[in-house]
Design a protein that fits this description.
The chain is an alpha+beta fold. It has one domain: Alpha-Beta Plaits (2-Layer Sandwich). Helix content is 32%, strand content 33%. A 4-stranded antiparallel beta sheet has the order 2-3-1-4. The longest helix is centred in the first third of the chain and has 17 residues. It is globular and about 40 Å long. 10% of the residues are buried.
Length: 99
């Protein structure tokens, strides 16, 4: 399994829209069967952090063509961002998470 950590700073007035569109787009990715899903977190300073699980690095790298009917949501996502922070990628070596 492969883990990707994404981090963003969001325009304060766009907080609710960012959360909505992140949710919609993540559901589309999961429904397409290319990832295992993601969790969205908010850090104390307001920075958002999403931790996504993928079957492999290769699956993440070749996510494929754009998601169906995603142009409007992708634009809304970008419009909500004040800053995109560096992405972190990691191989899972021991998994003790349970929901």
């Amino acid at each position: 399994m492969f883990t990707v950590i994404y981090r963003w700073r969001v325009k304060p007035e766009m907080d609710a829209e960012f959360h909505r569109v992140w949710h919609v787009r993540t559901e589309k990715i999961r429904a397409a069967g290319v990832s295992y899903g993601s969790r969205l977190h908010r850090e104390q300073d307001g920075t958002y952090c999403a931790i996504a699980l993928w079957p492999s690095r290769e699956a993440w790298e070749v996510m494929g063509p754009p998601l169906p009917d995603d142009a409007k949501d992708a634009a809304a996502f970008r419009a909500a961002l004040a800053q995109t922070l560096p992405t972190i990628t990691m191989e899972v070596v021991d998994d003790l998470w349970s929901a």
